[in-house]
Amino acid sequence: NKWLSGESNGYARGISDGMPKLLKTEGAAGAFSILGALWARQIPYTVIKFVAFEKIISAIYSFTSSSWGRAKESFNKTEQLGFTFLGGYMAGVICGAVSHPADTMASLISKVGPEMEGGIGDKVKTLYTKGHGEFPAVGFNGLWKGFGPRVVMIGTLTGLQWFIYDTV
User: Fold this and answer.
1) Residue 161's Cα: distance from chain center in Å?
2) What's the start-to-end Cα distance of the chain, in Å?
3) Which of 87, 125, 151, 164 suits a disulfide with 57, CB 3.0-4.6 Å?
4) Rounded to the nearest 5 degrees, what angle is found at the Cα of 34, between the Cα atoms of 26 and 135?
5) What single string gives the DSSP state of each residue in 135-147?
6) 113-140 as b/e: b if 16+ CB within 10 A
7) What is the pLDDT of residue 158?
8) Rounded CA gap, 40 and 152, in Å?
9) Neighbouring-strand partners of residue 131
10) 3-state secondary structure of 13
11) DSSP class of 131
């Protein structure tokens, strides 16, 4: 992709010339074609971020209470922040597992572009089973490509988000 490698002159100078160009080349529907795949990732990701964190942090303090005889209140703020980061990191790993396949597919749909026929469901099915043009079929294993580095990134970011939230 020329844009990602910095070899293009850019798509537009700003929104005033970019929006008309986008609407002309892709149409109103094309401008929002990735929205379904994006929501398929973002909504579960956000729900999981909160639900998983709350369940994990509850399990951590349940463990410390039953195994160490220490309730949450008996830990100082630094220790509690350590548990917060751990719970956030673990929640981030779960978030990554939930969102990674949809993110992979959203990225592929974006790369294929608007010339691929069909709705979002048809595009996902085609890319998963047959591939399209220069893109081979993704299959189950392809949906998980790059998951390891993503776990490190999302785990750390989510852990830090909860750490910052708990610090304030």
Assistant:
1) 15
2) 41
3) 87
4) 90
5) EE--HHHHHTTTH
6) eeebeeebeebbebbbeebbeebeebee
7) 93
8) 22
9) 136
10) coil
11) E
Residue 168 token pair: 């304030």
Q: Whole-model pTM above 0.85?
A: no
pLDDT at 5: 61
pLDDT at 2: 59
Give every CB contact of residue 95 below 8 A, 6+ residues apart in sequence: 45, 48, 49, 52, 154, 158
SS3 letters across 37-101: HHHHHHHHHHHHHHHHHHHHHHHHHHHHHHHHCCCHHHCCHHHHHHHHHHHHHHHHHHHHHHHHH
The CA R_g of the chain, rounded to the nearest whole Å, is 21
